[in-house]
Amino acid sequence: MFLAHPVGRPIHEIVAAEDAKNVSWLDLIEPSEDEIRLAEAVTGLSLPRRDALEEIESSSRHYRKGDVIYLSTPLVRMIDDRLTTYPVGMVVSPNWLITLRYASYTAFETMSRDLAANDVDFALSDVPELAIHLLETIVNRLADILENAGHTLDTISRTVFADKRSRRRVRNADVLRQTLRKLGESGDLTSSIRESLLGVDRIGMFLGDARYFEFRDTLQTRLRIMGRDVASLNDYVAQMTVKVQFLLDATLGFISIDQNDGMKLLTVVSFVGITPTLLAGIYGMNFKIMPELEWRYGYYYALGLMAFSVLLPLFIFWRRGWFGDRSS
């Protein structure tokens, strides 16, 4: 899809060169080869293909040809709790801002609505302002995703470290499995966001070092502010990464404790059952001489002895705190 984003007017699709008149931002969404060629014919520029946008070398992601700057970065997409990362390209020329992307992004849609509503304070043909505004919108969207991820981790933390009353309910196998799954998703998300922030930060540094906006002090200031925002978000991502690892260790620790408790219960049950089984086996033997057979209360003596052999280890285990709640 080949779209034009004019200021003060709704977006429209470009099917001919006339559709791109008086438009500074051209947007290619999952473009076909024909659409890319049409964009090249309209702008007179050479546009990168997807394989070029997916290159990981810095020299392939940020470079300049004459007065045209080519930029690309991986960008995380989080919609309906589904996490994906796609390459996004930007071509900044004196007359055009051209974006190439292979998924829909909330940041692009937000900026498109701002332009359509004329809710911007820059001119129609001001490409540098468009580029900086788009980068700022992307950073704001990444910050929103981080905030949601932080709330998710807080919820997981309350689940893992539930109070004593809720402990049995939240520490069953299904809840712990779900917790591990959520922690894995949070770890993937923080890693993807870190990669996206790194890409945006390198774009900002490249634009600053390239002196593309050297006569625009306000834009240089906004680039510096954006760099500080990205740095603060990177610190937040680092903190989230540590928290994810901490919660993962805690969850695995609780799983290990539950497994130990299960083994402890099996040990208690097996130990308690061994002695009465032994006594029942002894008094079930058919020997001719067995003094208890002649006792009037021999049967009750044997039953009492077996009951005592059950209660004694139970009492010992209870005193050691292996089961039960002695504080109640």
Automatic annotation (TrEMBL):
Subcellular location: Cell membrane
Membrane topology: Multi-pass membrane protein
Pfam families found in the cross-reference section: CorA (PF01544)
Keyword vocabulary terms for this entry: Cell membrane, Membrane, Transmembrane, Transmembrane helix, Transport
Top-level lineage group: Bacteria
Transmembrane domains' residue ranges: 265-285, 297-318
Gene3D superfamilies for the chain: CorA soluble domain-like (3.30.460.20), Magnesium transport protein CorA, transmembrane region (1.20.58.340)
CDD domains named among the record's database cross-references: EcCorA-like_u1
Main location: membrane
Stated family: Belongs to the CorA metal ion transporter (MIT) (TC 1.A.35) family.
Listed name of the protein: Magnesium transport protein CorA
Organism: Asaia siamensis
